[in-house]
């Protein structure tokens, strides 16, 4: 029982981080029908930035704020300077720009910060004894913090979409940009803000994720698996659904943790393969995901 | 009197395909004007250019002032609102949210209840997604959504398209009321010439991207030759 709970808690922690990254994908997809494959690299860049701040003596919480602000700025700039000019031509061009950005950012990170692993501090105490015992399982403070922050973000996004004027305009643009424009919504502004919020969310998730998920250190490959798992989560839940991102993220996190723990014959190496299996299965069987309304027609 | 909307030498199209080859047109404050023409004459393109959805060359003026780089947002703030062809409702949003979005340029949504009294069925379905409404209900919502911005000029692109005659009659009654009671000017693009001529003061006939003829509505409905040639009845 204790081991099961340990695995459940670990899975829920990883799952919460997938939820956050999946939400970043959802925010952009909802407003612009684009899957931002560069999202993971945005988070990597801002995580390096936060790490660099901590090495200069900046407290982690302030470094987190720097990362979030930088993430917002990167999102807005990317939409304005790279996505908008090519969107008019084709969706494929947008995809290629995102992939190019992915490679370019990764290269830039390596050039600025070097290829060696960086040790990244936890936001909350995460020593051997920093846990609450529940039914024989250990729920670490760091896990509690991550799960709580995920819940707060989900609540905040739900409020944004349902109860604010900006959220209403974002939903309007997602449904039909032309009709939204005819109602006086400044579509370009809404898209920029959506990309900003998405990237800020990714930056936030990144700083939380680096110490919490293997390899628990910051290096150039840190976010590749996280983005794959989060993409699987977002697709599973439905790319335009906040609820879907939550269910999808937690399912992927807990599911992988259980498979890793109990189906040891699969070995840890197959985790990424499993994520791809989920992605392919969703695209083939139910392209809208579990809670999504819009099918993925262009990836 | 200065025209509410003035269009001079308007050219517009899609990419390299020019559709409008120099249109001149005016709508006075509170006037009802109808644009008739066959499919492909450029009627929809005309309204899309005026409302700022597609780029144009030539002049578009509101109250005599030139609108450079007109965007839908800017035109709406000047008092020009479009009910696009094919309804143009926000299908994934509720009826109520559609109307709230319609008030974007005004920052208050007091008129929503007014529109629920004009179209009671919208009030009954306020929490329903717009995409689940019937064609007629969606067209009511499209008109109400466009009117939420309190325009002085409402552009309507084929609002009768695909709807039952009794529904169309109801929609035209509402449009007539907007004009006679609130003084909203109307620029209607219509295939249903009979109904449109009935409420219009003036008519423009569009033929392959140019204005072929224009004048008081009475002249058109009474002139058999024009009727047969352009209106097909």
Order of helices and strands of chain A: HHHHEEEHHHHEHHH
CATH class category label of chain A: Mainly Alpha
- Largest beta-sheet details of chain B: 6 strands, mixed
Helix content of chain A: over 70%
* Mean pLDDT level of chain A: 87
First-to-last CA distance of chain B: 35 Å
Q: What is the total tally of β strands of chain B?
A: 10
β-sheet strand percentage of chain A: under 5%
Mind telling me the C-alpha Rg of chain B?
17 Å
Uncertain runs of chain B: none
Quaternary arrangement of the chains shown? heterodimer
What radius of gyration of chain A results from the CA coordinates?
A: 19 Å
Give the helix proportion of chain B (percent range).
25-40%
The ordered H/E elements of chain B are EEEHEEHEHHHHEHEHEEHH
Q: Please give the largest β-sheet of chain A.
A: 2 strands, antiparallel
Major sheet of chain B: order of its strands?
6-7-8-3-9-10
Which chain pair shows the most residues in contact? Answer: A-B, 17 and 26 residues
CATH fold naming of chain A:
ABC transporter involved in vitamin B12 uptake, BtuC
Shape of chain B: globular
Query: Which structural class matches the secondary elements of chain A?
Result: mainly alpha
What does this structure look like?
The complex is a heterodimer of chains A (299) and B (233). Chain A has a single domain, classed as ABC transporter involved in vitamin B12 uptake, BtuC (Orthogonal Bundle). In chain A, 72% of the residues lie in helices and 4% in strands. Chain A is built from 11 helices and 4 strands, in the order ααααβββααααβααα. In chain A, a hairpin with a 2-residue loop joins strand 2 (131-134) and strand 3 (137-140). The longest helix of chain A is centred in the N-terminal third of the chain and has 31 residues, at 2-32. Chain A is globular, with a radius of gyration of 19 Å. In chain A, 47% of the residues are buried. Chain B is an alpha/beta fold. In chain B, 37% of the residues lie in helices and 27% in strands. Chain B has 10 helices and 10 strands. In chain B, helix 3 runs parallel beside helix 6. The longest helix of chain B is centred in the C-terminal third of the chain and has 18 residues, at 165-182. The model of chain B has no long low-confidence stretch (mean pLDDT 88). The chains are: A mainly alpha (299), B alpha/beta (233).
